[in-house]
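Colleagues,

For the teaching module next term, I've prepared a clean inverse folding example: a structure given as tokens, and then the sequence designed for it. I'd like students to try predicting residues themselves before seeing the answer, so please don't circulate the second half yet.
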């Protein structure tokens, strides 16, 4: 890990990002249904873990996972629809012998009981594990009866001890009301939603309902598919970002999300250890208060 850290320090410097320094503990938030504390920074694996027969990428993703664990984080989120991502994650967790250190989440989107069971069993094989921490209904559909049947199957798996938590996901504003209805109807453990400074629709109703129903919230697309970084390319970080200990644009964007107490964990898609280190530092130090969050949004909107 010392050699890994030295290499990362060089890469971070070359990218104009601050070198990693573990100043203070990593933020954790309690999962409402259980009280289990979960580190607030994790990894999403869509696209970046979808590859095969590429030793260089495999080594880089191995370093990402090692860096995440060394920095105090635990959550890895994947899905069967992410190509080879489940298989890559399973290979690396087995090789590193760290399955018991990871909060492992995947998803199911197949319809029909038999198809759903087959897909979930395939995920277990790909991930090389007999149990999961979280199984999620992927991109909840418009049919409430279909969703109820799929969630019932997840609940059955939970009762059998195959997964510890269940939830639903989406990545579009148009699905917010479906997720809200599922939270109110099903008493879910988790929801996973898209949320960034560029797409804040969940702030209106979804996050308050999550708090009211005791549902943990995982955030995907926290950088708005790169839109946030594109908007600030070449721009200096505002001096006032130091008031909440943000030293990079990545930390600026993530700290805005983490400052909402309904958010349990953000899961940026992360393919390089230096990015993992920078993301981890978003979960350290101070977070912006309500007045500062308004200032941050005003700054974002001023960028046009």
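(Answer key — instructors only)
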């Amino acid at each position: 890990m010392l050699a890994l850290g030295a290499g990362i320090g060089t890469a971070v410097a070359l990218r104009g990002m601050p070198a990693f320094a573990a100043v203070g503990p990593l933020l954790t938030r309690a999962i409402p249904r259980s009280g289990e504390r979960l580190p607030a920074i994790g990894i999403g694996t869509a696209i970046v873990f979808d590859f095969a027969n590429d030793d260089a990428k495999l080594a880089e993703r191995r370093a990402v996972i090692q860096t995440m664990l060394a920095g105090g984080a635990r959550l890895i989120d994947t899905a069967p629809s992410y190509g080879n991502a489940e298989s890559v994650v399973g290979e690396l967790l087995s090789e590193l012998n760290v399955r018991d250190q990871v909060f492992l989440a995947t998803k199911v989107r197949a319809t029909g009981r038999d198809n759903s069971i087959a897909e979930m069993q395939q995920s277990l094989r790909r991930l090389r594990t007999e149990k999961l921490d979280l199984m999620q209904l992927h991109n909840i559909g418009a049919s409430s009866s279909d969703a109820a049947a799929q969630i019932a199957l997840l609940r059955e798996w939970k009762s059998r001890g195959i997964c510890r938590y269940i939830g639903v996901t989406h990545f579009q504003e148009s699905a917010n009301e479906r997720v809200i209805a599922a939270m109110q109807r099903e008493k879910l453990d988790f929801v996973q939603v898209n949320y960034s400074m560029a797409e804040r629709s969940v702030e209106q109703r979804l996050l308050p309902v999550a708090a009211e129903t005791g549902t943990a919230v995982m955030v995907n697309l926290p950088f708005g598919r790169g839109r946030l970084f594109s908007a600030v390319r070449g721009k200096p970080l505002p001096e006032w970002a130091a008031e909440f200990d943000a030293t990079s644009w990545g930390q600026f964007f993530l700290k805005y999300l983490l400052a909402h107490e309904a958010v349990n964990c953000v899961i940026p898609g992360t393919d390089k250890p230096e990015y993992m280190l920078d993301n981890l530092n978003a979960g350290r130090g101070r977070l912006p208060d309500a007045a500062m969050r308004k200032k941050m949004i005003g700054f974002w909107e001023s960028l046009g």
